[in-house]
Amino acid sequence: MARPIKEFALAITIDASITRVWDEMVDWEGQSEWMLSTRVYDDRHSPVGLGHTLRAFTGPFAKFNRLLGIMDEMVVSAWEPPRFCRVEHVGRIIRGYGTFTLNTDPENPTRTRFDWFEEIEAPNWILALIKPG
């Protein structure tokens, strides 16, 4: 039986240069500070950039415990600093990909547009758990 696929997208403009936004975006463990209900774990043994591996635990109170949620395993499959990064979700339960795309605001070079897109294949109960608020 095929598992459902869900797409998530977010676009915001940030008052910071593209290089600053890139640095914050690829500070994988630092994403735990701004990614809703998620705690990110960086595999510091893999190379930075293409092929880098990381994990993210998503669920209620994920920043404080790992009792209710799901661990998502990922590998970086595209790396084009400071504009584009793609990660593949390669775990047994969560499959799919996510992209981060950055563009300098043409009217103000100190502002950056941040586009985040995810296509996730997982059981419905997982999709409900990880859906952004």
Order of helices and strands: EHEEEEEEH
Compute the number of helices: 2
Uncertain runs are none
Q: Estimate the mean pLDDT confidence.
A: 89
Structural class computed from helices and strand pairing? mainly beta
Q: Strand share of the residues? A: over 45%
Question: What does the main sheet amount to?
Answer: 7 strands, antiparallel
> Which overall shape is indicated by the principal axes computed on the Cα atoms?
globular
Number of strands: 7
Distance from first to last alpha carbon = 28 Å
Question: Helix fraction?
Answer: 10-25%
- CA-atom Rg in angstroms: 15 Å
Identify the strand order in the major beta sheet. 1-7-6-5-4-3-2
Task: For the structure shown, list the relevant keywords.
single chain, 133 residues, mainly beta, 2 helices
Describe the structure.
This protein is mostly beta strands and 133 residues long. The protein has helices at 18-25, 124-130; strands spanning 5-14, 38-42, 53-58, 70-80, 84-90, 95-105, 108-121. A 7-stranded antiparallel beta sheet has the order 1-7-6-5-4-3-2. The protein is globular. The model has no long low-confidence stretch (mean pLDDT 89).
Which helices and strands appear, and what pairs or packs with what?
Blueprint (H helix, E strand, L loop, with lengths): L4 E10 L3 H8 L12 E5 L10 E6 L11 E11 L3 E7 L4 E11 L2 E14 L2 H7 L3
Summarize it:
By secondary structure, the protein is mostly beta strands. 11% of the residues lie in helices and 48% in strands.
